[in-house]
Fold each of these.
Amino acid sequence: MSYRRELTRRHGDFATIGVALVLDRAPGTSTVRGARVVFCGAGPVPVRLRAAEDALLGTDAGEPAVRAAAETVLTRLTPTDDIHATAVHRREAAAHLLVRACTSAWERCS
């Protein structure tokens, strides 16, 4: 199941940071068989974070796995500062958005 979330200052603005997430559940189980995590607003082009995907694979997408994926965002995503947001703000917002996206997407897979 796919899910997309973004953070903007005002409705209709370009995203300060955003995440697109695809989770694939193994048939007949509650295990993540496939995951794709991509961020926009973290660089000049969308950024795929394979470490976050790896943190989710083979898990039940429960709180520990989602927390581990969010931690990879905090340690591996390297956005830049600009006039709209600092890199720290973007990184923290990206981790928060990933948690929300994982939770929502997994609920929709059920």
Note: Helices lie at 50-56, 63-76, 87-109.
Amino acid sequence: MSVTAAPDPRPLTGEPLALDLLNTRWTQEGTVRDLLRDTDGLAVWLAANGLGERFTADTATLRHTLQARDALKAAMDGPADIAGVDAVLGQGRIRPTLTNEGPGERAEFRDDAWGPGWLAARNYLELLSTAPDRIRACAQETCVLHFFDTSRNGTRRWCSMAACGNRAKASRHYARAKDV
């Protein structure tokens, strides 16, 4: 099924799936925006992540994807709050397969509507196993975006140097100039 989705309006895209799901909610000029407010937004997110061919942007998929986003947010806000992610992961499994190309794996879900959210939760586990200290929230106090720090020395602080990084530097400059 090929669906042409609208352009993605989010300021930060291309992060690993778990963080990209979290980044479907962002602030713009002081207002919280939410790409997943309806199935059209879900279609945009699915397409942006190469999932538009595999999953349908319907109300059940939207509901389960929102549940996964909330669970991921809770886990990132406080590592003690992991029950939600575990509940999402309980909706699917990885099945080993043998193909003409050799051994493989395939994700299977109790209900395909859980697919996108389950894949995001699974990706979060992969990020935690790879480099948990590289999963970051933007340091700009008004920003709600998350990113996976791929910088060489692991010191990235902002979702975008052009936006939040620049804003932070300008704010520090203004504060210094004001004190003079």
Note: The chain has a mean pLDDT of 90.
Amino acid sequence: MSDFNQQTIDEFRANEGKVGGPFDGAPLVLVHHVGRKSGREFVAPMMYLADETDPRTMYVFASKGGAPTNPEWYANLVGAEKATVEVGTETYDVSVREVTGADRDRIYTEQAKRFPGFAEYEKKTAGIRTIPVLALTRS
């Protein structure tokens, strides 16, 4: 895990889910997932978008800062179809489902409107890959 991610995780846990720096004011979740090859547990901080009609569901984005490849956690979550999340001071299990087609596009567009960095990530990946969107729904 990178030092940046560990610092973000530590700050999140010390401040009831709030962090500063590039995540200041952004909704953040810590997603626990198991490596599909290693079997080790990992924790990844991610920005999320809450579903407007289902309070049990949030969306995360496999943007990897606009890199040409998906983050490792993406394959781990899709393969497992479940995870554990920390939101604020609460920890709970979620099911994982990839969102595709028009629903994916609508959700990603909303995230990019709220946080313009996501629009930049999409520009960087144009013609290379479509940034996946995953729905995490409380079990």
Note: The chain has a mean pLDDT of 96.
Amino acid sequence: MTTHRYAVPDRFTPAHLRILAKLATGASSASVALDLEITTGTLATQVQAMGRRTGVSGRAPLLHIAYRTQQLPRPEQATFDGIPDEIELQMVQLVASGAAIPEIADACRISRGTAKHRLKLLRDRAGAANDVQLIALGWCYGWLDESLEVRPADFLSAAPTRG
């Protein structure tokens, strides 16, 4: 697994951890807000606050950070029914590290359309409703571990694009 060296973020608040735990199940923002008795606006504000606290963008890398730093209990190990290929594993790691479709496509040397399609197929195969749940399942299946650090949000925007 590729290791990146960046600073460990500050601790999440208990409210942040409750939000991340609900998001890890694949629940929608509306469902999480309803369960936690907050508005979707408050949920969005809390997710933005987590991003500012950690310097990353996106719910998937925020969940990965919470697992990596053991602020949330790590999911129990499970067996994936099938064998993910090298590109699929790379894609999960990139999603966990905060990459968007353009960065995933460039890193995997595939088109953006293919990256988007393959990521959807992987989510379907893994039983994930969204990228956040894919990260939770990635921890279950052993595709992710603490060796993968999350890159700061501005790191990916400086990455060169394919010609």
Note: DSSP finds nine helices and no strands in the chain.
